[in-house]
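Progress against Task 2.4 (sequence-to-structure conversion) is shown through the following example record, which the project officer requested during the mid-term review.
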Amino acid sequence: MIITMNRKLIPLALGILAFAPLGRAQSQIAGEWEGTLNAGGAQLRLILHVTAAKDGSLSSTLDSVDQSAIGIPVTSVTLKDSELSLIVDAVHGSYKGTVNKDATEIDGTWTQGQSLELNFKRAAAHPPVKLAAPSEIDGTWLGTLDAGTAKLHLFFKIVNTQGGLTATLQSSDQSPVWIPATAVTRAGSSLTITINGIGAVFEGKISPDRSSISGTFTQMGKAFPLEVRRVKD
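C-alpha cells generated for the chain above:
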C-alpha cells in the first residue's frame, strides 16, 4: 500500500525525534521539500517537513496531499554526509536519498513493499493542510462493479477538508494502490467524483439516509451501474 496509514487516512501531528549531531548539513536540510511519487498509474504529491532543533536533533513529518494524510510521523531521520535516511513506521515505508551540495534537491528511492523513485526539491513553506468538520458522506464506501468478464470491488474514501471534499479510490482486486480523485463535487444529493489518472468518473445520488450512493461509473467511454454503501474502515 502506498503512503496511506494502515488503510485509514487519519491525520497525525506527531514528529518523532531522531538524535544526530547538529552541524551545517543538518541545519541546511531543515525546511520544506516537495516530491511526486508515481505508483501504479497514480501520482501522489508528497511534502516532507524537516526541523533541526538546537539540541542537535532532527524531526520530520510527511504529508500525502492527494490522500489527505497529513502529518504522518517519520520515526527516524538520519543524515550522514550527504546521505539522508527516513523510516516511516506508520506506513511501513522508508526512504534513502542523496542531498546535492547546494541542499536544493534530494534524489532517492521510496520503499514500501516495492521500491519507487522519489526525488524531492526545496519548496517554500506550505501552510498546513487542514481538515474540516466531517461532512455527511465522509468515510469509506464499498461497491461491486460488474464489468462483464469480472466483478471488481471498489472502495472510495471521502474526506472533507477546508478546501472541499476529497476522495481516493482503490480497486482492491487489482491493486493495493489508492488513486486520488482529481475533483469531487456535490450539489444536494448529487455527487460526482472525477479521477483523471484512470479516465474515470463516478456520478451518483446519495440516499436520504446517507447509507448508499447509487449511480454510474464511466471509464474510457464505457458506463457501468454502481452502488456503493458505507463500510467501516
